[in-house]
Amino acid sequence: MKRLLALILAMLFVITGCNYGNDQEQKQWKLIEQSATGTTVTVAVQHSNKKVIEWLKNEFATFLASTYEIKLKVIDQPLGKTIDELSANKANEVNSGEYDIIIFESEGFKNALNKGLLYGPFADKLPKVQSTIDVTALNYLYREGIETQNYIVPYGRNELSFIYNQDVFYEKPMTYEEFFGVVKSFKGQFTYPNPATSKEGEAFILSVIGQYVDLEPFISGTIDQAKFISAIQPGLDALKAIKPYLKDEGKIYPASTQEMDDLYNNGALMMSLSMDYNYATDKLKEYEYPENTSTFVIPEGVATFTEGASIAFNSPNKSGAMVALNALLDPEMQTSKYNPKLWGSLTSYTLEVTPKINIDALKTIKLKSTTVKYDDFLESVMTEFSPEMRTIIIKQWQSQVLGN
User: Fold this and answer.
1) Pseudo-torsion of CA 283, 287, 293, 295, nearest 10°?
2) Dihedral angle at the C-alpha atoms of 63, 57, 42, 8, nearest 10 degrees?
3) Nearest-angstrom CA–CA distance, 148 and 146
4) Percent helix, strand, coil in the chain (nearest 5)?
5) For residues 117 and 119, what is the distance between their CA atoms, to the nearest angstrom?
6) Residue 102: CA atoms inside 13 Å, Cβ hemisphere, count?
7) What are 27-83's pLDDT values in tens digits?
8) Rg of the chain's alpha carbons, rounded to an integer?
9) pLDDT digits (tens, 9 = 90+) for 268-326
10) Alpha helix (H) ranges present in 272-398?
């Protein structure tokens, strides 16, 4: 009976389209919370960071239990298996399935939404989405080249950071023009991993190209390749312009970050790169980096990758799923998730929208001075490239930069 009530309330909640502008809408959310009390929420997750599973089972589960009396069940399995099972449920008209929440670390949302495997729209109805997320931002409105339609909640980000040896140069470049100046001044002491084989290498060329192109005309729908290649050409030209100043004059690129790290550690390079914001600090603790290593991001923008979570179309506990996803944006959870000892995921907050008290909570996580500050990451968020865009960019890099 309680599950039926939860479903009815969840459907009413979506249909009424409440935005927390009056007491009635707040009362409706309270009813959702009440219907979720004493229930179990099941989350299906596959994540490259093994800390995530433990964080969900411990920190997040404890928070849900103590705050909402919700029990969290975590199923660690490949995303493909989750999608296959949901597809079978859809075909067999199974209206009450096993999963409530699905985690999308990178790709997969587009496939799930197009197959009708997700419940919604719901994301913009969650109080903490309304109060902490910029729902007008392209990174909220689009994912993988399609409109999100409020079927997914962004809960975190990964951004590229630059690692450098302060014994070689000290002043952090604040623009890409300044960065290119440093590269040219120290000829042969910088390179980047091959973007076809390294996430960091891909993120670097996306960061550069992103400074020269307006992604909005290409962010949704089928891409006109000729127009897109023309739009990214200035960025490709910038990469070609620094090629003669790279190690080996850009004829050879490290296949991985580890190869780049090896070059950095032995003094052959003045910089390395990482998608893990605490990576340099960890390496320093392990005495695997030069003593005067530090990090920076370029305020003009660095490649950004958003992680999100959705609700399964046949979730047996839609109210509980909405309450759990709303809780994921709570400052206590965003701060806990930010802690590199527990997860190490950047917040999904926005400087222009999120209340200062939420952002200030991140200060409770004490990080070394060698780690980029959270507000610097927030200032350098870039519009995310879709998978189709990234495929085109890598092919063009291979033909225009690597091949010449």
Assistant:
1) 10
2) 0
3) 6
4) 50, 15, 40
5) 7
6) 32
7) 889 999 999 999 999 999 999 999 999 999 999 999 999 999 999 999 999 999 999
8) 22
9) 999 999 999 999 999 999 999 999 999 999 999 999 999 999 999 999 999 999 999 99
10) 279-285, 318-328, 331-338, 356-360, 374-379, 387-396
